[in-house]
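Summary for the funding panel

The consortium committed to producing paired sequence-structure records for every protein in the target list. Below we show the first two records in order, beginning with the earlier of the two.
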Amino acid sequence: MTSESIAANARIALEHLNDQIIGLTEQERQIENIVCDFLRSKDGKCCLLEGKRNSGRESVLRKVLHKYHKNLRVIKAGFVAADPTYQHNLAKEENDGYSVFLVRDADKLLSPQQQKFLYTMVDKATDHSWLVFFSVSRQDFAQNLQKQATSRIPKVQVSFKSTFNYEEYCSAMTQLLIPPGSACEEDDPYKEFISNLEYKKWLKPFFELKPFVTLKQIAAQLLMLFGYYFNDETIWNTDEIQREIKIIIDRANPSFSGEILLLNDQTLRAQCVFLCVWRLLQNKSSDGPLITPRITYRTVFLEFKKLVHTVYTSLDVISDIYVFRELDHLVKMGLLRADESANVTNTSFRKVWLSINDKIVKDSIQKLQLPSVVCDFFETVLK
């Protein structure tokens, strides 16, 4: 087996990737029936596509329409809701050559004022022989409409709810890396190479927290790696491959944070100042329901001095200015956020808060290679 053979097959699989939609055969069949009926009868109609974000609604619709050489016009409901002029212009439009529409994020049109746009699209579907799909996330979308809208919105609905087990999830990865019906399927060495990746061992976190779209993103990165990066026999070895795969998987992991990598490059003092902020915020209540909990620079300095005097005197500083400078640096690096209000004339009273999820920070403490006593200090969260 040569690197050229693997690279060639990986590029073939990458070309097929966009067209691969997995686990939605029944939804594809339903949408194709709706489209076929519309093309045959020329009767305008509407349909709800119900499912979570990234559940494949638009991808399946585009795949079916491509098969019948039909263009799709996408209308973003957020624009409609935010801009009355945009809504007004759409309402005045005549038939301009499009016959299939998708209203994306139609949940944003549930307010009584915005539901008028729903009437408009339903009426235009009838007047101009349009096929209009409303993409919604809420299962109770139709129940939340006013009576006028309920009577107009169709009962036709395609639900995008994927139910699959871990074995099926791993099989989906195999299908993405070895597209059915492609030349990859005929290349036994390539199939063996893919099998040896043993992705069942590292896909579990994605199966538990992420949809198929993440699986597709990981497959794309792996195929790019195999198809374009490893093109030199001298680096085509198992250790190098596993090292690069680990980087891809770590970055795709739900718990990954680029800021944590940045924090890892900071000095020990900067890391400790950051973790002092995190530690203090664990039991800090906010000043309002929409305000993030925050603390003053002075409070952080006192917590840092507590760390120094309790467990690690080597970090001691002679003035609070050194801690304040570290806080300013962390804010500049995007690891923290600070109050920049003009009325904060005394740096001691400036407030600071996290820009990273606190659970991610907690999970990363062991990875920062802190002295053990410092690590223990921060893992003992204030009671």
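The next record, for a separate protein in the list, is shown here:
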Amino acid sequence: MTTNMQTKINQLLSSLPGGVVVQSSWLAEQGYSFDLQKAYRRSQWLQSIGTGAMIRNGDAVGYQGAIYALQRQSHLPVHPGGRTALSLLGKAHYLSLSEKKVTVFGESNARLPTWFLNHDWGVAVEYHQSSFLPPDIGMAEVEVKSYSILVSGAARALMECLYLAPEKMALMECYELMEGLNNLKPGQVQQLLEQCGSIKVKRLFLFLAEKANHHWTKFLNLEKVDLGSGKRSIVKNGAYIDRYQITVPKELAEHERSV
């Protein structure tokens, strides 16, 4: 390997945080030709994990390191969301730390690359494409090792949980998560409610927040929130909540708030 090649790889490795994926297309944009990338793989500086994606040789890379690459290098509108985001934010301590499934949300047109889908990240990645919320509101930055990624903020994450309920997430669990969100910022919640495209999510969110008796609900202006019209049967044979015209599990309707 020539001195120039050695210098360039040293510059690359010193500029990249440990534990992240580096994409071939991004490297090419930074001046690292595909031939040069091949040379680095032959010299075992970089290791391929699939077409178009590499890691430092011997580096341990989790799904967060892949999300970092998608967000920072591809500018793909994808992020950890729902229950996974709440866990990363420290809002779901009681949940099992050994859970082997993570939830990732992306815009309707955001397709995950093949290398991401085919690689074994040590966890099952459940990917949901949806535009029920705009991609740039209600987000938060979290530190992961030596880098940071964007995840759903607490309010947005809870709305994503409700988007998946009741088919892929139990409403009782959503309520238990809502109970812990006693310090949400009303302005951010207001913005999310006004721009949320799902009537079901908005009605359930407000019902759960009021059931949890959160103080911040008193500062919301529901006149600016489109809650639609007509009844919504979330579950069969449930309890009808007249205020929000929704049918929820009887267990949830009768559940007393935790002290």
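Regarding this second record: The chain is about 40% helix and 20% strand. The chain has a mean pLDDT of 93.
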